[in-house]
Design a protein that fits this description.
- The protein has a domain at about 55-80.
- The radius of gyration is 13 Å and the shape is globular.
- It starts with a helix and ends with a strand.
- Helix 2 (about 40-55) links the parallel strand 1 (about 30) and strand 2.
- The chain is of the alpha/beta class.
- The chain has a four-stranded parallel sheet with strand order 2-1-3-4, sandwiched between helices.
- The longest helix has 16 residues, at about 40-55.
- It has helices at about 5-15, 40-55, 65-80, 95-105; strands at about 30, 55-60, 85, 105-110.
- The relative contact order is 0.21.
């Protein structure tokens, strides 16, 4: 399954690698799905396992109301100043600006379920 690898990569990037000074707190990581469903429930277990292994604070956000809900979630995460985000965009063609903004503010991974 590709999901654990993506999560490990995001946490590593958010932590800044082994040469970076240790942050005062655990990195804040978000995993934003492209909806709600059994696949994402399984992926959540991978997020939780990777967060525990790499001492990160991770949260999973599952937009239940489509594109507008996912956009609202991402904007709220960016406003909080999270360290990294993995997202499966619902509508990547129309979220280019949002994704570029996210990449400019933190470590961003995009993936397709």
């Amino acid at each position: 399954m590709k999901m654990p690898f993506l999560l490990l990569a995001l946490i590593f990037v958010a932590c800044g690698g082994s040469d970076a000074p240790q942050p005062a707190a655990n990195p804040q990581i978000a995993f934003v799905t492209n909806g709600v469903g059994p696949f994402w429930t399984i992926a959540t277990k991978g997020v939780e396992a990777a967060a525990a292994e790499f001492a990160a604070d991770a949260e999973v956000q599952m937009p239940g109301e489509g594109v507008a809900d996912q956009k609202r979630i991402v904007q709220a995460l960016l406003a909080r100043g999270i360290d990294g985000m993995a997202i499966s965009p619902i509508d990547p063609d129309n979220h280019t600006k949002l994704l570029k903004d996210a990449a400019a503010q933190n470590n961003l991974l995009t993936h397709d379920s």
